[in-house]
Specification:
Blueprint (H helix, E strand, L loop, with lengths): L3 E5 L6 H15 L4 E4 L5 H11 L4 E6 L1 H12 L8 E6 L5 H6 L16 E12 L6 E5 L2 E5 H11 L7 H10 L7 E8 L4 E14 L3 E2 L3 E2 L11 E7 L3 H11 L10 E13 L4 E5 L2 E5 L1 E15 L14
Parallel strand pairs: 1-2, 1-3, 3-4
Antiparallel strand pairs: 5-6, 5-16, 7-9, 7-14, 8-9, 8-13, 9-12, 10-11, 12-13, 13-16, 14-15
C-alpha cells in the first residue's frame, strides 16, 4: 500500500515537463510514493477515489485547476475517515487556487516541500446542477460561476492553451461579442441568515471560496477559504466595453466599482434561467444547465501546504 500518491495530468500545459522532473525527484527523494497518470477527462476523480480506498493519506494533484477539481471530487466521494489530505503542484493553464496558496506559504522551486507538509482544514463549495428534483452535484475548491465567465472557460478549454494564463485574457476579450445575457432569478442566503432575491439580466454571477480565477483575476478580494461562507459577485447586464474597463480593478486586487455590480457574503446562491441554459464554470470545468445552486460545505477538506505557511489565512495584501 502506498501512503502518498501523485496524480499527474500529462495533458496539462506543462504536464510533460513536470512528469520528467517529478519522476527524477521521486526516484531520488521519495521512492515510496506512487505516481499515476490520467488518461482522459474525469480519470483523476476515479484515481483519487481509488487511492483513498487503498489507504492513501496524502494525495497530490499535478495539473491545472480542472485536474484539482476532479481530484477533490474523487476524495469527497469517500467516507470522511478515508479521505486523504490534498496537495497541489500546479502545471496547468490558470493555476488560480495555487496562486492563493502562495500568499500564505513560500513554495520552493523544487518539490522538496512535499516531504514534510503542513495540514490545513478548509471549506469547499458544492454546486447542485440541473432542474429541481433532477440535480447532480459537484464540489469546487476555488470559484464557481454562471454567465459570461462560463463562456470564457468554454473557449479556453477548446483552445490549445499555447499562451498559458493569457488564454483567459484573450478569451475574455472575445467572449463578449457572442454572449447574450439571459434573464434569471437569483436567490442568495446571506451570512446573517437573510435572503436576497432578484430577477435580472445576467452578465455574471460568481460564488467564491478563494480569490482568483481566469489566470490571475482577483474577483473575490475578501474571500477566505476557512470562514464558513462564500463570497458572491453578481453583475447585471451592461455593455461589454464597460465590463472590460472594470477589469482593471481585479488585476489590482480591488472590488469593481459599478452600480450594476454587487458584492455580498453568504452560504447559498441559486440561479435559475427563465429561458434557455446557463454557461457554468466550476474550477475551470465547463457545464450547461438551466439551474445552478452553490452552497458552502464548512471545513470539509484537509489541504497540504509547505511547513513555512503562516498560522492563519491572512488578507494576502489585498488593497
Amino acid at each position: 500500500m502506498k501512503d502518498v500518491c501523485f496524480i499527474l495530468n500529462p495533458a496539462s500545459r506543462r504536464g510533460h515537463s513536470f512528469l520528467s522532473r517529478l519522476r527524477k525527484f521521486l526516484a531520488l527523494r521519495f521512492p515510496q510514493a506512487e505516481l499515476v497518470l490520467t488518461e482522459a477527462p474525469g480519470h483523476a476523480t476515479f484515481l483519487a477515489r481509488e487511492a483513498g480506498e487503498r489507504g492513501c493519506h496524502r494525495l497530490f494533484s499535478v495539473g491545472g485547476d480542472g485536474t484539482l477539481n476532479e481530484v477533490i471530487n474523487g476524495v469527497m466521494a469517500l467516507p470522511e475517515e478515508r479521505r486523504p489530505a490534498v496537495g497541489v503542484l500546479a502545471s496547468g493553464t490558470g493555476g488560480d487556487f495555487p496562486r492563493r496558496l502562495r500568499e500564505i506559504a513560500q513554495f520552493p522551486t523544487d518539490f522538496s516541500w512535499v516531504l514534510d507538509p503542513q495540514h490545513r482544514r478548509i471549506d469547499l463549495g458544492r454546486a447542485w446542477i440541473g432542474r429541481r428534483g433532477e440535480e447532480t452535484f459537484r464540489y469546487f475548491i476555488n470559484i464557481a460561476d454562471a454567465g459570461i465567465a462560463g463562456e470564457v472557460v468554454r473557449r479556453v478549454n477548446a483552445s490549445r492553451k499555447f499562451f498559458g494564463p493569457l488564454e483567459y485574457f484573450r478569451a475574455t476579450f472575445t467572449a463578449g461579442w457572442s454572449y447574450r445575457p439571459p434573464r434569471v432569478k437569483v436567490s442568495q442566503t446571506l451570512s446573517d441568515g437573510s435572503v436576497h432575491q432578484e430577477e435580472i439580466s445576467l452578465m455574471m454571477a460568481l460564488a467564491a471560496n478563494s480569490r482568483y480565477f481566469g489566470g490571475g483575476m482577483c474577483v473575490a478580494p475578501e474571500a477566505q477559504f476557512d470562514d464558513g461562507s462564500l463570497f458572491f459577485l453578481v453583475a447585471e447586464e451592461m455593455s461589454y466595453f464597460t465590463l472590460l474597463l472594470q477589469l482593471r480593478h481585479v488585476y489590482r486586487r480591488r472590488k469593481m466599482k459599478h452600480p450594476k455590480i454587487h458584492y455580498r457574503e453568504g452560504t447559498r446562491m441559486e440561479i435559475e434561467a427563465l429561458t434557455g441554459d446557463l454557461a457554468i464554470d466550476l474550477d475551470g470545468e465547463y457545464f450547461r444547465c438551466p439551474r445552478i445552486c452553490f452552497e458552502i460545505v464548512p471545513l470539509a477538506l484537509d489541504i497540504l501546504v509547505p511547513s513555512n505557511a503562516s498560522p492563519g489565512y491572512d488578507k494576502g495584501n489585498v488593497e
